[in-house]
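On clarity, I found the account of how folds are encoded harder to follow than it need be. Since the whole study asks how a given chain folds, the encoding of that fold should be made plain. The format is easy to grasp once an entry is in front of the reader. For illustration, here is how one protein appears when written out as sequence plus structure tokens.
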Amino acid sequence: MNEENKALVASVFGEALLELVIKNREIGRETLAMLIRDRAEKEQDEDKILVYWQACRALLGTA
């Protein structure tokens, strides 16, 4: 993952975390990953979908 993608993934984490805090929801790897997956399913831009997928992989430690 290059530096630009790392920055995009960090932004995805931040946005998802902020949404969970605002909605007073539990904060954890699984809840962050679930929210990010939900966003990916609604996204039309393939590049953004890839970033969401990379963020989920980073959170859950999957290959």
